[in-house]
Amino acid sequence: MHLSWVQIVRLGLVQMCLGAIVVLMTSTLNRLMVVELALPALVPGLLVGLHYGVQITRPNWGFLSDRGGRRSRWIIGGMVALALGGMLAAAAVPVMEARLWAGLALSVVAYALIGLGVGASGTSLLALLATATAPRRRAAAATITWLMMIFGIAVTATVAGRFLDPYSHVRLLEVVAVIAGGAVALTVLAVAGIEARVRAAPEPGSLPFRQGMAEIWAEPKARAFTLFVFLSMTAYFMQELILEPYAGLVFGFTPGQTTSLSGAQNAGVFVGMLTVGIAATGLRLGSLRGWVIAGCLGSAVALAGLALAGPLDLPLVPVVVTLGLFNGMFAVAAIGSMMQLAGEGRTAREGTRMGLWGAAQAIAAGFGGLVGATMADGLRTLTPDATAFGLTFLLEAALFVMSALVAARVIGGAPAPVARLVPGE
Questions:
Q1: Domains of the chain by residue range
Q2: Class at the top of the CATH hierarchy for domain 5-201+209-410
Q3: What is the model's pLDDT at position 52?
């Protein structure tokens, strides 16, 4: 039997836990390094880039879970590694303040462990969903799990922001410990017994991994969509490491306020995803192609507003929420397009295509964060902070426009398929 809707939601809780831990590493700790410790934004940029770079191993984790036939142990093991990495990353902050190089060394170990944990747990989770979800439910399952991840990010950022003020290193460790421990416990409960009740047999693999990947890369549409994923994800993640420092340096936000700002942004992402999920798959309004293009262009406009917010002293929170809204529209429509395109071309290669696009996303995420941090650092030595961050946001906007142009060529215009609830399933 296939996964029921309740079981899909249970697996979505794992994705929610992944987002809850990662948001603290990529936003809160980033801000603490740049503002409180006065380190260049390049430092957290390199660390977060390391965490994304390690995720290039995602196809290998998927292969291991395929071969073993038991994905739950990889999901739980990866979450444990992620939680441990999160605790080490938080512990590295006070160490950096006392002994910089020792703190940086600890951070390198921590962020590498975070990347391994996300790769092992996240890939095995998606593999379980892909093999145990009925074909007509796969797009809906991907949307549900992604929305739950964004929900976890938004709630964690908002709640953690309140408990972090007034800030102290001890308070930081307490907050991270509670979130990390809760994530591991919830993951164990979420996956308990699921594999024993569903048909989740791994796909047979007769070809060597490298040969299968080469055959997929030979497909023009797969290559073009890989370019779209790389460009759009680079744009999507360029602001990840500089938004909170921007709020702190230009607008004077406290650590708690900037963490809550990240929560507000991800709340906008959640609403944007929900809007497309209801409009495209429920009401059949527009096509996935149209929603992807609208999301990319809307994100570009919002980023232009973000660039002007500093010099013109515009309210920051509404602009950030708007950016999150269009980011969410683009992201969920892109996920739907990915599920749709994964079945095109050679048959029985959906996993290979998803692996290729997942690797492109991981590389782009690390590259985008690093480019954004490096550009902001370099421009801050030449121009005022508001101008430096603003120019970086404008480059990000230009990449979103380029992504819209590529999407218009590679993604089909057919309406999104409807995933219906069938009684008794």
A1: 5-201+209-410
A2: mainly alpha
A3: 81
